TrEMBL record:
It catalyses: DNA(n) + a 2'-deoxyribonucleoside 5'-triphosphate = DNA(n+1) + diphosphate. It is an enzyme of class 2 (transferase). Belongs to the DNA polymerase HolA subunit family. One of its GO terms (biological process) is DNA-templated DNA replication. One of its GO terms (molecular function) is DNA binding. NCBIfam families: holA. SUPFAM superfamilies: post-AAA+ oligomerization domain-like. One of its GO terms (cellular component) is DNA polymerase III complex. Keywords: DNA replication, DNA-directed DNA polymerase, Nucleotidyltransferase, Transferase. Coiled coil: none annotated. This is DNA-directed DNA polymerase. Its EC number is 2.7.7.7. PANTHER family: DNA POLYMERASE III SUBUNIT DELTA.
Length: 343
């Protein structure tokens, strides 16, 4: 069964009791992570006791039996169990598809429930196909939030700590949130922590105080200069980040978020949407649109897709050894800046 968008989100909060497994996927992995968290919360009994086993591509590839052993194992304390698998969608797709197929043949085949988190999956994906065709598994395709959805999430987070915020502050805060769900969640949590016990509505001054950091400015400056082809400015901003001790992975995350935003902009322009910049997350204001539009001209969708591939490869290299992380990112920034300058 395939559910999309809001239907998928609703299902993740109230899954049908007959479904033992769920595949959640979307262009933003943070959406799948949030859906998995909602499913686990829904599956947790009133006692609050549930066992969650987290697995990933590497652990299952090293020991394929690990997935099936965990699905079949029964908790010694009798509490429900959930196997949470994060995957790229390719490396262990055959094993996950096999598990879904086996679970579909016989109700109650496994002792544990299964939730699979994946990024973007093509329609021809074996894993996606197995989840869609299974009777006892659900396939959730998740899409980026609309502005109203983001505002609702911010209000709900503040309500939990007994706080609220002025309308203009809410608009400014949600407008500046990055499109990546995981990063946006971290910003919302930071806002709620700031608002706890404040005793008044959050105002514009509070939003400016929370967001105006030198590191955020230098990150944005690095990415803009890189994609504009301004090599000296990109190196200068990157140097400031190095001096401040900013993680090279943070630079890659910022570059990834901006690349995804530019891809979204191309899609909105191709669809003929009016004022596409204001529909992006975060939005591009009218005063910034000419520079952003010129940047888009340098980076058509195919070249942006190539940037994403280079980011994934750079992150893999960076994580393989802490000492090599900064040079790897510096090389990538230089290559992209040169490519933009040549364009």
């Amino acid at each position: 069964m395939l559910l999309k968008g809001k239907q998928a989100v609703t299902f993740s909060r109230r899954p049908g009791p007959e479904f033992w497994a769920v595949l959640a996927f979307g262009d933003d992995p943070g959406l799948a992570s949030d859906a998995a968290a909602s499913l686990i919360k829904a599956w947790t009994p009133k006692s609050g006791d549930i066992e969650v086993i987290s697995l990933d591509d590497d652990s299952i590839r090293k020991d394929p039996a690990l997935l099936f052993d965990n699905l079949e194992a029964v908790s010694l304390l009798g509490e429900p169990r959930v196997i949470r698998v994060r995957t790229s969608g390719d490396k262990i797709a055959a094993l996950l598809a096999e598990a879904l197929t086996e679970g579909d043949r016989e109700s109650g085949r496994y002792a544990a429930r299964l939730v699979i988190e994946a990024g973007s999956l093509q329609s021809r994906s074996k894993l996606r196909g197995a989840a869609m065709s299974a009777r006892l598994a659900a396939c959730l395709q998740l899409f980026a939030d609309e502005a109203e959805d983001i505002e609702s999430r911010v209000k709900a987070a503040l309500l939990e700590v007994g706080a609220s915020m002025d309308a203009d502050a809410l608009h400014a805060f949600t407008g500046d949130l990055p499109g990546h769900r995981g990063i946006a969640n971290a910003e919302i949590e930071k806002l709620a922590l700031y608002a706890r016990g404040l005793g008044r509505n959050l105002a514009m001054a509070d939003i400016r105080a929370l967001s105006a950091t030198d590191i955020d400015h230098d990150l944005s400056a690095t990415i803009r200069a890189t994609l504009d082809g301004n090599i000296p400015a990109a190196h200068t901003a990157l140097q400031r980040l190095d001096v401040a001790g900013t993680s090279p992975i943070s630079v890659l995350r910022s570059l990834q978020s901006e690349t995804l935003r530019m891809l979204d902009a191309h899609a909105k322009i191709a669809a003929g949407q009016a004022n596409p910049g204001m529909k992006l997350r975060p939005p591009v204001w009218q005063s910034d649109w000419p520079a952003f539009r010129a940047r888009l001209a340098k980076w058509p969708p195919k070249r942006l897709a190539r940037i994403l591939e280079r980011i994934y490869e750079a992150e893999r290299q960076a994580k393989s050894g802490g000492a090599s992380a900064s040079p790897v990112v510096r090389v990538l920034i230089t290559e992209l800046a040169r490519a933009a300058a040549a364009a």
